Amino acid sequence: MSATPVRPSRFALYDAPYVLLTLVALLWAINLVVGRYIAGHIPPITLAMVRWIGATLILLPFAWKQIVRDLPIIRRNLPLLVLLSATGIASYNAMSYYGLQYTQAVNGLLVQSTAPLLVAVWTFVLFREKLSLGQAAGVITSLVGVMVIISHGDLDTFLHLKPNIGDVVIIVALVIYALYAAILRKRPPLGPLSFLATIMALGSLLLSPFALWEYLNGKVLPLDHVTFFTLAYVMTGPSLVAYLFFNRGVELVGANAAAPFLHLLPVFGTALAIVFLGETMAWYHLAGYALVISGIALATLSARWRMAPH
Asked: At a CB cut-off of 8 Å and minimum separation 6, what does 137 contact?
């Protein structure tokens, strides 16, 4: 659980962790689709840096009072905040956008589904926190559902998925992000807006040398309508909204209970492909969705049972 007491919010939605985490998966799934769509058009590290600069500037007017109030805490905890920014903001996003330039959609979705297992590994390594039997069963059930969707219900298709450099980069990015999710419990007692604004601003600074390297190598941000609409979305939905929701979800239920909701990423990604790319619904979509939802329910109920007084 979080290192600091969980404070109730004035907004009912902000105290509904499973709704928040479902919305996070949807927003990040859209980001994944957008990332594949603009691959080769916008330099990946530049995209990540501009994304966080823009998100910070949007959030700053709302977060300023919290930042001023929390400045002494920020100064005392700067090394931890840099670590959180490097893992959850800078590295993960830049590497994901880079990997999406090379990986197939189906491979990228499969790679994303490993996140809950990686979070479980980090929470065990760092805090000796073990998954309960119900949580482990939920993670495995959801993972099977993801595999059913990605393989179209065909074992031979699944066995012949071939990893490439993009898959490897995204796997490394997920290992890094899982570390962020695991150590998020140690976040300093900052307000939610000041915490997010701080790690986003630090992430922008950490990415700037690499974005400069991209620029010096001739990879320039194109100023066109595709770039405009891409930046408008990535600065708001998967950045401001999703990170606020994810941080709050982990604060309320812990990393291991929150992680199975990341299995919804490929589920939503498939649904988006059906809606926007004209793909048709098949039996394996329904079977996979049922398994993913069952796994999440199993892990969620197990987490609630563990937290309940006995």
From this structure: 295, 298, 299, 302
